[in-house]
Amino acid sequence: MIDFSLSEDLLEIQARARKFAQEEILPIAAEYDRKAEVPPGIADKAKAAGLMNVTIPKQYGGMGYGALESAIIAEELGAACSGISITILVNGLALTPIQLFGTEEQKRKFLCPATEGAKLASFCLTERDAGSDASSLKTTALPDGDDFVINGQKCFITSGSMAEVMTVFALTDPSRGPRGVSAIVVPADTPGIHVTKIEDKMGQRASDTVELTFEDVRVPQENLLGKPGRGFPIALQTLDFGRSGVAALSVGVARAALEYAIARAKERHQFGAPILANQGISFMLADMATKVEAARLLTWQAAWFADHGQKVTDKSAMAKCYASDTAMEVTTDAVQIFGGYGYMKDYPVEKLMRDAKLLQIYEGTNQIQRMVIARQLGK
Ligand code: CAA
Predict the structure, then answer these.
(1) Known catalytic membership, residue 105
(2) Distance 154 CA to ligand 1 centre (A)
(3) Banded model confidence at residue 2, pLDDT cuts 50, 70, 90
(4) Residue-wise pLDDT tens digits, 173-197
(5) Of 177, 215, 235, 277, whose CA is between 20 and 30 Å from 229?
(6) Residue 16 CB–ligand 1 contact under 6 Å
(7) Whose CA is nearest to atom 11 of ligand 1?
(8) Which residues pair with residue 351 across a beta bridge?
(9) pTM beyond cutoff 0.85
């Protein structure tokens, strides 16, 4: 049965996330975008509002929500500021490998402390020469006695300088190439982890994006998640969930741009009438609104399949690709509707346009999403 209405519980979560986003994020979004800093205490506030680690089961300190609840929250946060929100949301991506592949003992050991307070977590996969081709990574985690010794560099790591726990993908057996990659939990205070570059980004500037160098970082082999050599499929399965989160964030960014554009088209008068009276503008708004709805439906569909235990590789790639392309188009059109004012930092839409660009790139570029979808079609 298909039902597009939200349950009482979902409406409560949506209202709570919207209130938090509009009161705690939106008013500081432009300031922290300018400063290129994560607002201090924002994760604590999100945690207090029940909006952190939302898909982590309750027994490990999370909210125990499903993918649909998570998507509804991400849309609301994204509508306020995707940059600030990614700090809150990326914990889900970083902790998912532990949730899905950790033993009961590992979940107690790593997830419970990670969800205490509002600790941040990082997902350390990407390297300078292993971006889209993520399995060609070079970081090693060589066995030495009971430990792994990690050496290498990871780049574009969200929350990398602030995280307290990291899931790191590294070669435990370099002779096996991609099948020698393993997933390892690394406490961020382990000696030998250095922040070697802080990125100065075009958009989503209120998030922490860094390069990390691992120099003889020693962690016990018991921090290995799943089987040795199965780290790359663990990363890809994790991204199957993460990508529907990026889709939801994108819907939020696009929705915000649409709402600003509608308000502007009604209030801005030229030639003696609101510019909304021009078909050139109203048809643009109609297309923008249609795409936002379609993006939300694809996103909720991917979340629904995830919540019903089905494989979502293609569904989440479709949602991420379509929703982030929509965010780019809708924010660009919103700037166009604002005209010269839209290009100025006095108005909110230029930031949304800069922020949207990253949605088409992280968690797999949209070219990679199309590759993932095409491969699934061939199966
Ligand atoms: N789930 C589980 N396993 C999967 C899988 C999935 N969705 N997709 C593939 N696999 C398995 C395959 O079955 C295969 O297993 P075997 O070794 O047993 O054969 C293995 O994983 C390798 O699969 P492929 O041969 O298909 O892998 P590939 O090298 O051709 O690459 C790719 C696939 C889709 C291109 C992948 O490299 C990819 O997604 N690249 C993009 C990387 C990416 O998204 N990076 C994001 C970084 S995180 C980030 O951006 C977060 C942030 O900071 C905000």
Answers:
(1) no
(2) 17
(3) confident
(4) 999 999 999 999 999 999 999 999 9
(5) 215
(6) no
(7) 233
(8) none
(9) yes
